[in-house]
# Entry
Amino acid sequence: MEKEGTNKRKSMEYHRQVLQSRLEEDKGLDEVGAKQVYVSPSDTIMSPCTAKLSAYKSKHFGKAKPQSLFAKMEASKKTEAARSDEGKESQDGGP
# Structure
């Protein structure tokens, strides 16, 4: 019976050590759970070429007009509906 007690104590000590090591590893994680990465102070500095490309991109994105992703489908449905309406009128004896 004493052997069981010592085994349990050793087991508890092992689990405490494992938990402590995991907690120390997690200290390096941010709120999201991703490891923090060193950010260089020069990361925000743009080269002249990058600045020019970024300006060009923002200029063209600013000019863009929103388009419906299903514009073709909507147009085809409208034409089909118009055709079916015309067909019904001709069957009814319309002009």
